[in-house]
Specification:
By secondary structure, this protein is an alpha+beta fold. Helix content is about 15%, strand content about 40%. Strands 2-3-4-1-5-8-7-6-9 form a nine-stranded mixed β-sheet. The two termini are about 20 Å apart.
C-alpha cells in the first residue's frame, strides 16, 4: 500500500545554509523553492519518490536542532507515499472510516495529498505522486472530487 517515506519536513533557522549543505555534500537537486510572507521553503529530491522539505520561519523556537536524542523537536511532519492511485484512495477511505481525516485531498501540482492525525496526535501526510518529475509544484489547492 505504501512505497516509502515521501518526505520529511523540518524547520531550519537558515534555509540557504540548509540547502547549500545538502546540495554540496549529497548533490541533492532542488526542485522547488518559494518565499511567502510567512515562511520560506524548498524541496530537495533524495530519490525518485522522496525529498526533504525544509522550512525557515523567522523566530520559530523549534528551528534550531537540539543534539540530544529524543529531545530534538524540529520535525514538522512526515509524509508517506502511496504505491499508486488505487492504494491512495483505499488508504484515504480507511483513514476517513477511522476518523483520522475528513478526507479532503489537496492538489499540489506534482502530487496530491491527504492529511491525517495518527494515534499520538501527529499530523501526517499521505501523498500520491502524479508527476514523478515534480514539475509544477504549487501551493495546495482543494482537489475537486472526480
Amino acid at each position: 500500500m505504501i512505497s516509502g517515506v515521501n518526505h520529511i519536513a523540518v524547520l531550519t533557522e537558515d534555509l540557504d545554509r540548509f540547502v547549500a549543505f545538502y546540495r554540496e555534500v549529497f548533490e541533492l537537486e532542488v526542485v522547488f523553492e518559494e518565499a511567502t510572507p510567512a515562511f520560506r521553503h524548498a524541496i530537495l529530491r533524495t530519490g525518485p519518490h522522496s525529498w526533504l522539505h525544509p522550512a525557515e520561519l523567522v523566530g520559530n523556537p523549534h528551528a534550531a536542532a537540539i543534539p540530544d536524542m529524543f529531545a530534538r523537536g524540529h520535525l514538522d511532519h512526515l509524509a508517506l507515499t502511496a504505491a499508486d492511485g488505487e492504494r491512495f484512495a483505499q488508504a484515504r477511505r480507511r483513514l476517513v472510516e477511522r476518523g483520522a481525516t475528513d478526507g479532503a485531498v489537496e492538489d499540489l501540482g506534482a502530487f496530491h495529498a491527504v492529511w491525517f492525525t495518527d494515534p499520538d496526535g501527529m499530523r501526517v501526510e499521505l501523498v500520491h505522486i502524479v508527476d514523478p518529475t515534480l514539475a509544477g509544484i504549487h501551493a495546495p489547492r482543494p482537489l475537486e472530487p472526480a
